[in-house]
Amino acid sequence: MKTEYQKCMDGDFFTADPEMLQITYRCKRLLRSLNNTDMENTSERKKIMNELLGSIGDNVHIDIDFHCEYGINIHCGSDVIINMNCTFVDNNCINIGNNVLIASDVKIYTATHTTDVAGRTNTPENKKISGCFCRTYSKPITIEDNVWIGGGAILLPGVTIGKNSVIGAGSIVTRSIPENCVAVGNPCRIIKHLDNI
Asked: Per residue in 41-66, pLDDT tens?
C-alpha cells in the first residue's frame, strides 16, 4: 500500500498525513532560519540551503523572502539565481537546471485540484487524517539549462521550460514551452524563436 507521500510523488490524490506534516514543519523552520540569516553570512545561508533543498549545485543565490512547501522536492543545478519573494509549491519535484535566472515574485506550483466539485472534496476518512477538506494531486515541473523566468511569472503543474528559453514577466505558463523560445502572456505563448543559439 502506498504512503501518502508516495501518492503525492506519483501524481495521485494525497492527504497530508502526519509524516507529510512533519516534512512541512521541518521546511518551515529551515525557511525561517534562511529568511532571517544575514545576506552577508553566505556560509550559514549555504548550510541552510543544503539542508532545505533536495539537491543543490554550486553558486546558487536564493534571495529573501523565499517560500516553499517541502523543500526536499526542489533540485537545483549550478549558477542559479532565485530572486526576491519567490514561492515554490514543491509537492512534487521542481527540477532547475544550470545557469537559470528566476526573477522576483515568480510562483511555481506543482499542486492542483480537480475542477469537479465533488472530486475536490475530501472523504470523511481523509478529513480525519489531515483535517483538510480538499483533495490535492501534483505534477512535476522542469526548468532546463540557461532559462530566464521573468518577474511575476507563474508556472503551473506539469510544465517544462526548454533550455535557453525566456518566459516574459507576468506570464502564466499553462503548458510546456520548447527550447530556444521567447514566450509571454496569459496563457503563455511563443512569440519568437531564438535561431542564433
From this structure: 999 999 999 999 999 999 999 999 99
Grid coordinates belonging to 114:
480537480
Judge contact between 140 and 156, C-beta under 8 A: no
Closest CA to 135 of 1, 5, 14: 14
Q: How far, rounded to the nearest angstrom, does the alpha carbon of residue 3 sit from its chain's CA centroid?
A: 22
> Per residue in 92-103, pLDDT tens?
999 999 999 999
Fold of 4-193: UDP N-Acetylglucosamine Acyltransferase; domain 1 (2.160.10)
- Among all residues, which ones are annotated catalytic? 113
